[in-house]
Design goal:
Helices cover 34% and strands 15% of the residues. It contains six helices and six strands; from the N terminus they run αβββαβαβαβαα. Strands 3-2-1-4-5-6 form a six-stranded mixed sheet, covered by helices on one side. The chain is globular, with a radius of gyration of 16 Å.
Length: 146
């Protein structure tokens, strides 16, 4: 079924969401009934496997840190970043603009994701954008300022 999804969506529309927890790693797929299954292999080996599926990018989310605002799980990211040949999006834990910048400055990370910062901190989006731009990162330009 996952291969059928790739055939329909193409390599720009299909990506695995890999969720890391302290004692286990799970692979989330939006085509499974419950969306999750526990891996039977180390994360690095699984990264190699999913890259062979002709996917567009990898979205790595730390469930342990998701919603905490304590920052990304750089230990786990560091374990796999050298093996990733596709764009890598990291998520789970960002609570301020410094966390986003730290993630973007980590070699091998293509993008960062957050919901907590934008949903629960009133001016989180404009402050984060401005700080990221000040840090020298390439951010999409908008005609509208905040």
């Amino acid at each position: 079924p996952y291969f059928d999804l790739i055939a329909v969506a193409g390599d720009d529309g299909a990506y695995p969401i890999i969720t890391a927890e302290a004692n286990r790693i799970e692979f989330y797929s939006d085509i499974d009934n419950d969306g999750a299954r526990e891996l039977e292999m180390p994360l690095g080996k699984y990264i190699e496997h999913v890259q062979s599926l002709d996917i567009g990018e990898i979205y790595l989310n730390s469930m342990d840190r998701d919603g905490t605002g304590f920052g990304y799980d750089f230990e786990t990211i560091g374990e796999i970043v050298d093996a990733v040949r596709l764009p890598l999006i990291i998520a789970g834990g960002a609570g301020n603009e410094s966390h986003l910048i730290d993630g973007l400055h980590m070699g091998g990370v293509s993008a960062v994701a957050t919901a907590n910062l934008f949903n629960f901190i009133g001016d989180g989006l404009p402050k984060a954008r401005n700080k990221i731009i000040e840090s020298g990162e390439n951010v999409a330009k908008w005609n509208k300022s905040f």
